[in-house]
Amino acid sequence: MIDIAGILMENISYVLLITLGGMLISFSVHFVPVGGAPAAMAQATGIGTGTVQLAAGAGLTGLITAGTVMQVSDSLPLIIAAGAVGAMIMMSVTMIVGTWVYVYGVGVPPASAKVKYDPITKDRQDLYVSQGTEGHGLPTVSYVSGVIGGLLGGGGGALVYYALMSAGLDTGIAMANLVGLASVFAVGIFFVNAVIPSYNIGGTIEGFHDPKFKKWPKAVFSSLIATFMCALVAVLTIGGL
User: Fold this and answer.
1) What is d(CA 144, CA 226) in angstroms, rounded to the nearest whole number?
2) Which residue, of 22, 151, 185, 208, is most buried by count of CB atoms within 10 Å of its CB?
């Protein structure tokens, strides 16, 4: 006899896990120091590319590391930790290489125009900001903020992937097909939750010390609604196969 109530409760738990993961992803984007095109010309603090690209890159790296760990363990904390560490490494490497380019290639010191003193090192910033720019490079506070963003985004992405894989394990679908479906849905959910906060940020952000960071509740609430709808479709699709 099929336990309809048990299956329903399981699917609801998967939907809630995916929704939580999407909210973590949305929140994480506000930590990532994004400078866009101005940063590429050393006229703004952050990494010289867009919010969505950075968030997606961190998320995809987190999904890969989480998926690798899932092959040998079904421990949720371990899977989330693997996703978080993978995304943190990706963000750290991206930011340190970007810093090398700014310092040794462009010839500018990492300095923020949003704060007079770096909140972490307490070093003075305004003396080193070039005239006519909004800062340049990746000062310590932005670097630390980016690592935190990777942790939250990678952990959220791993949570989404775990829930999607778990939803399809008992359906009889081939493992290769299940991995493909879960990955497609996870990447889609990640992009949705990267785009929403990018509109909220409006271009560039230096990290958790930036005044724009205070806007995060709006994006996270919007992501709650959007991810919940995505989670319903994903769980019904994968779980119903």
Assistant:
1) 29
2) 22
